[in-house]
């Protein structure tokens, strides 16, 4: 019998949670309707088992303590697993993350995307589950690759002993992966690590200087490190088209500081096979930070 | 502060040493690597590498005569198990040749090298995206004695990280080759130009949309148009002002010369010139620029005047878009 994967719903904002959980654990169809999912995101009656709150891509989007408490209480009520997702953090971001750790119940997870956050969490809250996020899961994910051979130039080291030893040293037992272009089921084997895969879209590259977040800045303050913003990424998304693209090139879009690519049917099938093989036990859905087009 | 400069050929060692480089770094892709792995992926760059151990030995010998230390880059974003083993072997050979340091971009490889007792110093590459004090401490735990800050840290952030990790050395970018995104969080390839080149140079057309499904208002559309125009201008500066140089051959583009006093005060002890793939003239002029600025370290105001006048185009400096550390701009010194 094929294995099954738990569905985790990634949310930047907690404000949709009340609507999502109004009738209990939401199905994929409910998520699609409330969050305005684009085509390509999964649909169906399968229900969400976990909530991942926060951003893997920008420390400006670290949840505020009231948001996390709200999510924590709702997850507890519905019996949902809970994780906080954090990006590559500056010391300022570490300072924002640190008090949130105290709000998480034992057994909750922290998705880390830099080694400092992992070190801090292991020291301060060893009772939390730690998951290495997809920024730490380095692999070639260029949506423009014309063939599979390009990805093999730099093979990933997710299943290498040296990488596993580093994660073990930090008490990290789980990793989150993207489906790379030309994905094969075996790409998701990660030794003794439990694996979650992001569904719908993968990320290719992120910046710190944010094009969208510069919208409200004076010209001299645009596109710079540590810039302030008005969280414009919560309101806008950019669909990207490359004039030189071939007809089968993966669709790309930008949300905030990050460039994503939509999964092809073949990539989705590869993830499905990896689930069936038992190599992937969790699918993480980009709930409110993809190419959403919510009705108004 | 030490000037850290790139080389790609043996012949570049002496002129760069004479120009003021205290350390040089290079990549190596020997034939056995290419034969075994069918790629040049021993480090981040497909080009601009030495191609033999003989050349590496010559580089180390020449550098030693000028009291210049040699670092070897092992800074691909990630390595598989077989590549890691091959790099451990390469590290041993580099050490026996008299090499000084390895610049390492993969955390697993760094961990292995940290336990390998090669006698080499380990520098955590900017690819490891060290942006906070805890991360620097962790890289030190793994064996790094120096951390190369990524391009996207502010001076205040560097100061805090360095201050919290005193036993570690810190290195920061000072000239050339700005990344649009974060190098350490880039999972793309610098494709050949015919396939689009680096993804940040490969111009995508963007259609801006509201996620609530409403059409953009006129003021929003105008805001995006102005932002897009500013972004295109910023990219031009980021890519070395159209990959141009001054009349004297000094490169335009990403530059942190004005910030040298702040970097020194922050605890940065080495400043890096990027661009292994550049030509020798560009490299020598780059080192000369940094050396001349560094000679004015004790006169911060004079150094800044010098840096802005150096290329004869202070108007380019005044946009702030060439700055690695824009907070050094006069109106915003804090």
Structure explained in plain terms:
The complex is a heterodimer of chains A (296) and B (334). Chain A is of the alpha/beta class and 296 residues long. Chain A has one domain: TIM Barrel (Alpha-Beta Barrel), CATH 3.20.20. Chain A is built from eight helices and twelve strands. In chain A, α4 packs parallel to α5. The longest helix of chain A has 14 residues. Chain B folds into two domains: 286 residues, TIM Barrel, CATH 3.20.20.380; 35 residues. Chain B has an eight-stranded parallel barrel with strand order 1-2-3-4-5-6-7-9, surrounded by six helices. In chain B, β3, α4 and β4 form a beta-alpha-beta unit. Chain B is globular, with a radius of gyration of 20 Å. The model of chain B has no long low-confidence stretch (mean pLDDT 95). Chains A and B meet through α4, α5, α7, β8 and β9 of A and α4, α5, α6, α7 and β8 of B.
Fill in the keyword field for this structure.
heterodimer, A: 296 residues, TIM Barrel, eight-stranded parallel beta barrel, four-stranded antiparallel sheet, 8 helices, 12 strands, B: 334 residues, globular
- Alpha-carbon Rg of chain B, integer: 20 Å
Give the CATH architecture of chain A. Alpha-Beta Barrel
Total discrete domains of chain B: 2
Classified in CATH, the superfamily of chain A is Aldolase class I
Specify which chain pair forms the largest interface: A-B, 79 and 77 residues
For the biggest sheet of chain B, the summary is: 8 strands, parallel, barrel
| SSE pattern of chain B | EHEHHEHEHEHEHEEHHHEHHH
Strand content of chain B: 5-15%
Number of alpha- plus pi-helical segments of chain B:
13
Number of strands of chain A: 12
The multimeric state of the shown protein is heterodimer
Distance between the termini of chain A: 42 Å
Overall strand count of chain B: 9
